[in-house]
Amino acid sequence: MKPLGPDSVVLTDGFFKEVVGRNAEVSLMNIYRRFQPTRFAALDCVKRDPPSHIFFDSDVAKWLESAAYLSVRYPSEAIAKIVGETVGKIVAHQLPCGYFNSYYQVYKPDRIFCERTEHELYCAGHLIEAAVALDGTGLNKELLPAMRKYADYIYERFYVKRDAAFVTCGHPEIELALIRLYEHTKEEKYLRLAKFFLDERGTRAEEIYPGREPQYDQTHLPVREQREAVGHAVRAIYLYIAMADAGRLTHDDALIDAAKTLFRSIVDQKMYITGGTGSNYVGEWFTEPYDLPNEYAYAETCSAIALALFCGRLSKIENRAEYHEVFERVLCNNILAGQSLSGKGFFYTNPLETNLPHLKFAHEHAVPYQPIAERVELFDCSCCPPNLTRFFGQLETALYGEEESALLVNQYLSSKVSIADMVLLLQSEYPLGGHVRIDAEGTGTLKLRIPAWSGKPTCTVNGKPYPIRPRGKYFTVKIEGKTEIALDLDPRLRFVYANERVTENSGRRAVEYGPLVLCAEGVDNGSALRNLSVTSLHGERRTEGGIPCFLLPAERLTTDGALYSRKKPKKVPCTVKLIPYYAWANRGETDMQIWFLA
């Protein structure tokens, strides 16, 4: 499948148009303001106290990439000026050989390409991605030649001379970036270098953080032999993206097979109901199959973004509705939850349950890890905020694709798409409702995905009932002239049960509505949310501040107050108020629950 880009697709209105607009008009500049004294200042390449961090360049690069995408629909003179000034600093301080890293040039010039774990090639990869985006959108043409020169230097040191102190980077990213550079420039050596980094990974013992195992950075096996998602989740999925890309471009079936198998490992055994990945705070790890704790879930926002991007890459190899299903789950839950409704606050991690007394005790007594219950504007490690803005800036590319002369509708965001022989206007309530209207004009074949969450979807074409395929599949409509399609995806409420090996959810169930996972907050339902049981899905729906709310019959288990008692707990009838998971923690610190007693 060939995804359609922003030259063919534009969001027109609705929920996600507002999300993208908020990222362009609020988040982008607010992130810059918070980054300017540290990340952007580091580009001056002068010593500071405290020193710059090893990965500040990557934060700037993701911001630049975000600016490139978002400026296509939301041009801003202020943003363009910052981009020009920032690129100017990078170019001015780039070494004659092509190398650029604001940390190593200032603090460790004698250790360039000597410390595998310290993100040099990771930062280079993000700068390369930013250069491709800026050049592709026309916002800035200076960074690309500079980063090509840098990539040429990396090629010389790692592939030609092979005189660097390490072979592969401790944090995968350079691989997928080089492939993007190859696809943009058609320069073969960039693909060759990316393939080299993939081929060499896991074939030798390399430097790793003290106390870590090779699984942590995916060097435990050659990539074609890897069959289970392990280690640091972001590193892992960035690597898997590169494997899928390289496999597609070089027709390497072993790489493709490994990438598909690793996808299955994630979604079948290691993915949260919200689409989150990486369950353990120790190393931000994929742990054992079905190890998915709720209160201490890590589920980093960046790893959710990586999984969504991985789905897109796999769909280029062999389009399957499931890839878009998983993309949809991640987008509408973990990714959206990573950002506040104001566009200013962010979550690094995304728990599926919070208990305020536990949180407060942990924070007061320096317990090693406890998630926060309110989003903040800046973290010490702030990879997630600019990763969100760059993701939403590319959202249009995930909606439609072309395959065998057919136009595929993969996501139902209100939008307009134009291809050679067809123009299509899609209007929907998505993701808050299931009604979709499509006005198409021209000649061609349209394939529409029916989400697996649909209840009893129905369709009419030009006012007449039209048969559709089972859920989780595509159905086909021939377009001849003006054609009106009315689709009801029927996003009814439903219970969802976890595999019995997910021990924390044994005897519990969650509630979903369409693509949205729902949760209860203490601000609406009081404390002791773990004692709640949603007994029926027949209740009242409201909209409060643009957020859908569901008032459903429930029961609360209560005891006689003793620590241990021989009396059976009572089931006290009550009403529970559920909201989408993405909207939680926008009204102050509060308890939160997704999995309820069955």
Summarize the structure.
The chain has helices at residues 15-40, 56-73, 77-93, 102-107, 120-137, 143-160, 174-185, 188-200, 233-250, 253-270, 301-317, 321-337, 356-364, 384-393, 522-525, and strands at 2-3, 9-11, 231-232, 285-286, 353-354, 400-403, 406-409, 415-419, 422-428, 435-450, 458-461, 464-465, 473-480, 483-488, 493-496, 508-513, 516-521, 532-534, 540-544, 547-558, 570-580, 592-593, 596-597. The chain has 598 residues and is of the alpha+beta class.
CATH architecture of the largest domain: Alpha/alpha barrel
Distance between the termini: 41 Å
Beta fraction: 15-25%
- Secondary-structure-based class equals alpha+beta
Q: Class of the largest domain, according to the CATH hierarchy?
A: Mainly Alpha
Oligomer: single chain
Number of helices: 15
Radius of gyration: 24 Å
What shape does the CA trace take? globular
CATH fold type of the largest domain: Glycosyltransferase
Helix content: 25-40%
Number of domains: 3
Whole-number mean pLDDT: 97
Q: Segments where pLDDT lies below 50 for 5+ residues?
A: none
Largest β-sheet summary: 11 strands, mixed
Q: What's the total number of strands?
A: 23
Question: How is the secondary structure organized here?
Answer:
Elements (H helix, E strand, L loop, with lengths): L1 E2 L5 E3 L3 H26 L15 H18 L3 H17 L8 H6 L12 H18 L5 H18 L13 H12 L2 H13 L30 E2 H18 L2 H18 L14 E2 L14 H17 L3 H17 L15 E2 L1 H9 L19 H10 L6 E4 L2 E4 L5 E5 L2 E7 L6 E16 L7 E4 L2 E2 L7 E8 L2 E6 L4 E4 L11 E6 L2 E6 H4 L6 E3 L5 E5 L2 E12 L11 E11 L11 E2 L2 E2 L1
Parallel strand pairs: 7-10
Antiparallel strand pairs: 1-6, 2-8, 3-4, 5-22, 6-7, 8-9, 9-10, 10-13, 10-14, 11-12, 11-14, 15-16, 16-17, 16-23, 17-21, 17-22, 18-20, 19-20, 20-21
Helix pairs in contact: 1-2, 1-14, 2-5, 2-14, 5-6, 5-7, 6-8, 7-8, 7-9, 8-9, 9-10, 9-11, 10-11, 11-12
